[in-house]
From TrEMBL:
<dbReference type="GO" id="GO:0004849">
    <property type="term" value="F:uridine kinase activity"/>
</dbReference>
<dbReference type="GO" id="GO:0005737">
    <property type="term" value="C:cytoplasm"/>
</dbReference>
<feature type="binding site">
    <location>
        <begin position="14"/>
        <end position="21"/>
    </location>
    <ligand>
        <name>ATP</name>
    </ligand>
</feature>
<dbReference type="InterPro" id="IPR006083">
    <property type="entry name" value="PRK/URK"/>
</dbReference>
<keyword id="KW-0067">ATP-binding</keyword>
<dbReference type="InterPro" id="IPR000764">
    <property type="entry name" value="Uridine_kinase-like"/>
</dbReference>
<dbReference type="InterPro" id="IPR026008">
    <property type="entry name" value="Uridine_kinase"/>
</dbReference>
<dbReference type="GO" id="GO:0043771">
    <property type="term" value="F:cytidine kinase activity"/>
</dbReference>
<protein>
    <recommendedName>
        <fullName>Uridine kinase</fullName>
        <ecNumber>2.7.1.48</ecNumber>
    </recommendedName>
</protein>
<keyword id="KW-0418">Kinase</keyword>
<keyword id="KW-0547">Nucleotide-binding</keyword>
<dbReference type="InterPro" id="IPR027417">
    <property type="entry name" value="P-loop_NTPase"/>
</dbReference>
<keyword id="KW-0963">Cytoplasm</keyword>
<comment type="similarity">
    <text>Belongs to the uridine kinase family.</text>
</comment>
<comment type="pathway">
    <text>Pyrimidine metabolism; CTP biosynthesis via salvage pathway; CTP from cytidine: step 1/3.</text>
</comment>
<comment type="pathway">
    <text>Pyrimidine metabolism; UMP biosynthesis via salvage pathway; UMP from uridine: step 1/1.</text>
</comment>
<dbReference type="GO" id="GO:0044206">
    <property type="term" value="P:UMP salvage"/>
</dbReference>
Amino acid sequence: MSTKNSPIIIGVTGGSGSGKTTVSKKILEQLDGHSISIIQQDSYYKDQAGMTMEERRAVNYDHPLAFDSDLLYQHLKMLKQRQAIDVPVYDYTISTRSPEVIHQEPTDVVILEGILILSDERIRDMLDIKVYVDTDDDIRIIRRIERDTQERGRSLESIITQYLTGVKPMYHQFIEPTKRYADLIVPEGGENSVAIDLLVTKVRDILAHAGRDRQYNK
Protein backbone atom coordinates (compact mmCIF):
# COMPACT_ATOMS: atom_id res chain seq x y z
CA MET A 1 0.00 0.00 0.00
CA SER A 2 1.03 3.62 -0.44
CA THR A 3 2.98 5.45 2.23
CA LYS A 4 2.63 9.21 2.69
CA ASN A 5 5.07 9.96 -0.11
CA SER A 6 4.51 7.06 -2.49
CA PRO A 7 2.01 7.19 -5.36
CA ILE A 8 -1.43 5.61 -5.42
CA ILE A 9 -1.41 2.70 -7.88
CA ILE A 10 -4.83 1.77 -9.31
CA GLY A 11 -5.12 -1.55 -11.12
CA VAL A 12 -7.83 -1.78 -13.80
CA THR A 13 -8.44 -5.27 -15.16
CA GLY A 14 -11.03 -7.38 -16.99
CA GLY A 15 -11.33 -9.40 -20.16
CA SER A 16 -10.42 -8.23 -23.64
CA GLY A 17 -13.08 -5.78 -24.81
CA SER A 18 -14.50 -5.28 -21.32
CA GLY A 19 -13.93 -1.51 -21.33
CA LYS A 20 -10.73 -1.30 -19.26
CA THR A 21 -9.25 1.43 -21.45
CA THR A 22 -12.44 3.50 -21.34
CA VAL A 23 -12.59 3.25 -17.53
CA SER A 24 -8.90 4.20 -17.26
CA LYS A 25 -9.34 7.21 -19.55
CA LYS A 26 -12.40 8.42 -17.61
CA ILE A 27 -10.45 8.23 -14.35
CA LEU A 28 -7.67 10.19 -16.04
CA GLU A 29 -10.12 12.82 -17.30
CA GLN A 30 -11.81 13.28 -13.93
CA LEU A 31 -8.46 13.65 -12.17
CA ASP A 32 -7.29 16.29 -14.63
CA GLY A 33 -4.96 18.69 -12.87
CA HIS A 34 -3.44 15.99 -10.69
CA SER A 35 -0.13 14.26 -11.35
CA ILE A 36 -1.32 11.03 -13.03
CA SER A 37 -0.12 8.49 -15.61
CA ILE A 38 -1.30 5.27 -17.28
CA ILE A 39 0.83 2.16 -17.81
CA GLN A 40 -0.47 -0.72 -19.92
CA GLN A 41 0.42 -4.31 -19.14
CA ASP A 42 0.51 -4.97 -22.91
CA SER A 43 3.77 -2.99 -23.01
CA TYR A 44 5.33 -5.76 -20.96
CA TYR A 45 4.88 -8.67 -23.35
CA LYS A 46 8.12 -10.64 -23.34
CA ASP A 47 10.90 -9.76 -25.75
CA GLN A 48 10.75 -12.41 -28.49
CA ALA A 49 13.60 -11.20 -30.70
CA GLY A 50 15.27 -14.61 -30.48
CA MET A 51 12.24 -16.42 -31.91
CA THR A 52 11.15 -16.92 -35.51
CA MET A 53 8.06 -15.08 -36.73
CA GLU A 54 6.18 -18.40 -36.85
CA GLU A 55 7.09 -19.07 -33.21
CA ARG A 56 6.06 -15.57 -32.18
CA ARG A 57 2.66 -15.90 -33.81
CA ALA A 58 2.09 -19.22 -32.03
CA VAL A 59 2.43 -17.59 -28.58
CA ASN A 60 -0.74 -17.42 -26.50
CA TYR A 61 -0.86 -13.71 -25.66
CA ASP A 62 -3.72 -14.18 -23.17
CA HIS A 63 -1.64 -16.52 -20.96
CA PRO A 64 0.21 -15.18 -17.89
CA LEU A 65 3.51 -16.55 -19.22
CA ALA A 66 3.34 -14.18 -22.22
CA PHE A 67 4.15 -11.23 -19.94
CA ASP A 68 7.46 -10.13 -18.43
CA SER A 69 5.96 -9.85 -14.96
CA ASP A 70 9.39 -9.58 -13.32
CA LEU A 71 10.12 -6.34 -15.20
CA LEU A 72 6.66 -4.93 -14.52
CA TYR A 73 7.04 -5.69 -10.81
CA GLN A 74 10.45 -4.02 -10.75
CA HIS A 75 9.07 -0.93 -12.49
CA LEU A 76 6.17 -0.66 -10.03
CA LYS A 77 8.63 -0.84 -7.15
CA MET A 78 10.65 1.97 -8.73
CA LEU A 79 7.55 4.13 -9.18
CA LYS A 80 6.61 3.52 -5.54
CA GLN A 81 10.07 4.81 -4.62
CA ARG A 82 9.55 7.88 -6.82
CA GLN A 83 12.05 6.71 -9.43
CA ALA A 84 11.56 7.14 -13.20
CA ILE A 85 11.22 4.09 -15.46
CA ASP A 86 11.65 3.28 -19.15
CA VAL A 87 8.50 1.49 -20.30
CA PRO A 88 9.03 -1.00 -23.16
CA VAL A 89 7.26 -0.45 -26.47
CA TYR A 90 5.74 -3.59 -27.97
CA ASP A 91 5.57 -3.69 -31.77
CA TYR A 92 2.56 -5.78 -32.82
CA THR A 93 3.64 -5.83 -36.46
CA ILE A 94 6.70 -7.94 -35.60
CA SER A 95 5.36 -9.52 -32.38
CA THR A 96 8.25 -8.42 -30.20
CA ARG A 97 9.62 -5.34 -28.48
CA SER A 98 10.69 -2.27 -30.34
CA PRO A 99 14.16 -0.81 -29.63
CA GLU A 100 12.32 2.28 -28.36
CA VAL A 101 11.18 2.90 -24.78
CA ILE A 102 8.91 5.51 -23.22
CA HIS A 103 10.46 7.41 -20.34
CA GLN A 104 7.98 7.73 -17.48
CA GLU A 105 8.57 10.06 -14.55
CA PRO A 106 6.89 9.15 -11.23
CA THR A 107 3.43 10.61 -10.65
CA ASP A 108 1.09 10.88 -7.66
CA VAL A 109 -1.38 8.46 -9.27
CA VAL A 110 -0.48 5.55 -11.54
CA ILE A 111 -3.15 3.57 -13.41
CA LEU A 112 -2.00 0.09 -14.36
CA GLU A 113 -4.29 -1.42 -16.99
CA GLY A 114 -4.20 -5.02 -18.23
CA ILE A 115 -5.98 -8.35 -18.47
CA LEU A 116 -3.79 -10.23 -15.99
CA ILE A 117 -2.51 -7.67 -13.49
CA LEU A 118 -4.23 -9.48 -10.60
CA SER A 119 -2.90 -12.94 -11.46
CA ASP A 120 0.60 -12.27 -10.10
CA GLU A 121 0.59 -11.93 -6.31
CA ARG A 122 3.63 -9.63 -6.28
CA ILE A 123 1.99 -7.15 -8.65
CA ARG A 124 -1.41 -7.52 -6.99
CA ASP A 125 0.09 -6.57 -3.62
CA MET A 126 1.56 -3.38 -5.14
CA LEU A 127 -1.91 -2.09 -6.05
CA ASP A 128 -3.70 0.27 -3.67
CA ILE A 129 -7.06 0.00 -5.45
CA LYS A 130 -8.01 -3.02 -7.59
CA VAL A 131 -10.79 -2.57 -10.15
CA TYR A 132 -12.37 -5.38 -12.18
CA VAL A 133 -14.39 -4.32 -15.24
CA ASP A 134 -17.07 -6.99 -15.66
CA THR A 135 -18.70 -7.16 -19.09
CA ASP A 136 -20.73 -9.92 -20.75
CA ASP A 137 -18.87 -12.26 -23.15
CA ASP A 138 -21.15 -11.36 -26.08
CA ILE A 139 -20.47 -7.65 -25.72
CA ARG A 140 -16.73 -8.24 -25.40
CA ILE A 141 -16.47 -10.32 -28.60
CA ILE A 142 -18.51 -7.72 -30.55
CA ARG A 143 -16.16 -4.97 -29.35
CA ARG A 144 -13.15 -7.09 -30.23
CA ILE A 145 -14.46 -7.73 -33.75
CA GLU A 146 -15.08 -4.01 -34.29
CA ARG A 147 -11.62 -3.06 -33.01
CA ASP A 148 -9.63 -5.71 -34.86
CA THR A 149 -11.39 -5.26 -38.20
CA GLN A 150 -11.25 -1.45 -38.13
CA GLU A 151 -7.92 -0.81 -36.40
CA ARG A 152 -5.84 -3.89 -37.18
CA GLY A 153 -7.19 -4.95 -40.56
CA ARG A 154 -7.91 -8.52 -39.49
CA SER A 155 -10.47 -10.83 -41.05
CA LEU A 156 -13.63 -11.83 -39.19
CA GLU A 157 -12.67 -15.51 -39.48
CA SER A 158 -9.25 -15.00 -37.86
CA ILE A 159 -10.74 -12.96 -35.01
CA ILE A 160 -13.38 -15.57 -34.21
CA THR A 161 -10.88 -18.43 -34.43
CA GLN A 162 -8.47 -16.68 -32.06
CA TYR A 163 -11.29 -15.83 -29.68
CA LEU A 164 -12.67 -19.37 -29.47
CA THR A 165 -9.31 -21.14 -29.27
CA GLY A 166 -7.37 -18.73 -27.07
CA VAL A 167 -9.04 -15.59 -25.78
CA LYS A 168 -12.24 -17.10 -24.34
CA PRO A 169 -10.70 -20.16 -22.62
CA MET A 170 -7.87 -18.03 -21.18
CA TYR A 171 -10.42 -15.55 -19.87
CA HIS A 172 -12.32 -18.21 -17.96
CA GLN A 173 -9.16 -19.98 -16.76
CA PHE A 174 -6.98 -17.03 -15.73
CA ILE A 175 -8.76 -13.66 -15.86
CA GLU A 176 -12.28 -14.15 -14.49
CA PRO A 177 -11.01 -15.97 -11.34
CA THR A 178 -9.03 -12.84 -10.37
CA LYS A 179 -12.34 -11.01 -9.84
CA ARG A 180 -12.25 -12.19 -6.23
CA TYR A 181 -9.24 -9.95 -5.55
CA ALA A 182 -11.00 -6.77 -6.72
CA ASP A 183 -11.92 -3.96 -4.36
CA LEU A 184 -14.44 -2.63 -6.86
CA ILE A 185 -16.31 -4.49 -9.63
CA VAL A 186 -17.55 -2.21 -12.42
CA PRO A 187 -20.32 -3.78 -14.55
CA GLU A 188 -20.42 -2.63 -18.20
CA GLY A 189 -17.19 -0.65 -18.07
CA GLY A 190 -17.10 3.01 -19.03
CA GLU A 191 -20.89 3.30 -19.14
CA ASN A 192 -21.02 2.89 -15.36
CA SER A 193 -20.54 6.52 -14.34
CA VAL A 194 -21.62 5.89 -10.73
CA ALA A 195 -18.83 3.37 -10.07
CA ILE A 196 -16.24 5.61 -11.75
CA ASP A 197 -17.39 8.64 -9.74
CA LEU A 198 -17.10 6.64 -6.50
CA LEU A 199 -13.59 5.51 -7.43
CA VAL A 200 -12.44 9.02 -8.35
CA THR A 201 -13.90 10.40 -5.11
CA LYS A 202 -11.88 7.84 -3.14
CA VAL A 203 -8.66 8.73 -4.99
CA ARG A 204 -9.23 12.47 -4.43
CA ASP A 205 -9.76 11.80 -0.73
CA ILE A 206 -6.47 9.87 -0.50
CA LEU A 207 -4.63 12.63 -2.38
CA ALA A 208 -6.13 15.30 -0.13
CA HIS A 209 -5.05 13.45 3.02
CA ALA A 210 -1.57 12.89 1.59
CA GLY A 211 -1.30 16.59 0.81
CA ARG A 212 -2.28 17.53 4.34
CA ASP A 213 0.20 14.99 5.76
CA ARG A 214 3.06 16.44 3.68
CA GLN A 215 2.13 19.98 4.72
CA TYR A 216 1.94 18.95 8.40
CA ASN A 217 5.34 17.24 8.26
CA LYS A 218 7.15 20.24 6.75
